[in-house]
Amino acid sequence: MRIAIVGAGSIGLAVAWRAAQSGAEVVVHDPDPGSGASRVAAGMIAPVTESHYGEAALGPFMAASADAWPGLARDLEAASGLAIGFRDVPTLVVGVEDGDRAEIDRQAELYRLTARNVETLTARAARKVEPLLSHRVRGGVLAPEDRAVDPRVVHDALLIAAERAGVELRAERIDDLAELDADQVVIAAGCGSASFVGAGGAGGANDGAASDPGSGPDFPERHRDYAGTATDEGCLAARSEHSDAATADGRLRGRDEAASEGARWTLPVRPVRGAVLRLRTVGDQPLPRTTVRGYVKGHPIYIVTRESGEIVVGASSDERGFDRRTGTAGVVHDLLRRAIELVPEIAEYHLDEVSVGFRPGTPDNLPLIGRLDSRTVAATGHYRNGIALIPATATGVAALLAGDDKAIPAAFDPLRFGPFARQRPNDVTRRQRPENPLSDGSSRLVQPGAPCADPIPGSGQRSAAPSASAPESRVPAGSDKTESRGDENGHEAADDTSTHEEADS
Predict the structure, then answer these.
(1) What gap in Å lies between CA 209 and CA 219, rounded to an integer?
(2) Is the pLDDT score of 455 beyond 50?
(3) Where is the composition biased (Basic and acidic residues) (predicted)?
(4) Are 187 and 376 within 8 A, CB to CB?
(5) How far is CA 46 from the centre of its chain?
(6) Residue 273 — pLDDT band, cuts 50, 70, 90?
(7) Which of the residues 82, 202, 343, 421 has an alpha carbon 20 to 30 A from that of 276?
(8) Helix, strand or coil for residue 144?
């Protein structure tokens, strides 16, 4: 089988590597491999602390992927010869005010529904776990089973492993999937995935033609400045026929127009911009020995450390399109101030880098993974969880390409929105479902305490379903729309150059 993959980010390369190991002939297309998401991501693998209200369908898949990471790390290091910085590192979630602590307590109830070990700590106990914490910290929650990895090295290792497995890498931009000489095509292009539209009849020659940029009366004015344009680096910015604002019935404006013009599918991926800071210790300065996440006066922040002495602090979040400027002084100030309020020692570290990238978001914050037509598969829209979901996505897509149509959870169906929605018997749409953590995102409702279906075939991973009694959070994930506020989900900052790359975490 000949497989073409559009996007040489960590997701695309992982799929390519696994497919090549299965005997496929694989070619990966990307104008600038390694310049995108993996350069900005923090690298948290956090099935507990990345649990969010309204995203219950992601939980089992995230848990299975986290459990698969140790094996993937061993295989990847053996295949590439690189140490990727994978390690078990607990996450400590803390707050500095009573309101912050109340929010953490609400989140803790959701964390416990992951069926993993979660410990509630007093302020004294939290500082015993992490001695560098500020004395202002009011207590927190410990997730001892979380992990972390260095995304930049992971990408380098995947590139080496894929090439050694026989994958061919072509440094070129793809504008029309019909041009690709392949039996199967995988779109793993991050925010750039929105530039492809399934045109013509089923299996027609125009499958995957890029859309006309900025056309149609509903194309939002604030997106016209990047629709179909090339960046300074020569990389195509995502072209889109839809707004990033969902309507009441879950559709995106412009998708009806695309359907009426004969398109068979589009990918509703939007750029969610975020700034991330990288710092480094000087001399024998101490490092936090945990991943620290928390709230400072209601604003989320995270601090991730590497054994090399690097510290990653993030992240801001806004939806202003592909503005690749490296963050305002206010953004840097806010991130540093919040981090220092939790870990005062950070004030003494050296600021090495300010990075800006784009998380590939979707209307429901769930990835777009699955078959678009008989020739085309989507593996995109991972938003803040690209690195964390590498194992599950690569395994699932490789199985799908091999003919297993049930390899990916139905909740991630890339045709689940608007006029392109795939109709199933007794399907329960997002609009019809109650907005609570009870639903697993498929066509059924999970009973409290019932196990969810095996998210990765053969993995044996099962996760308890969220309880209907879980409280609603007053700080919803991804709710920030301005640069000045941090976003705990922002650690999956993605591409600031190449839009053919997909890896968020």
Answers:
(1) 18
(2) no
(3) 240-258, 424-434, 480-505
(4) yes
(5) 12
(6) confident
(7) 82
(8) coil
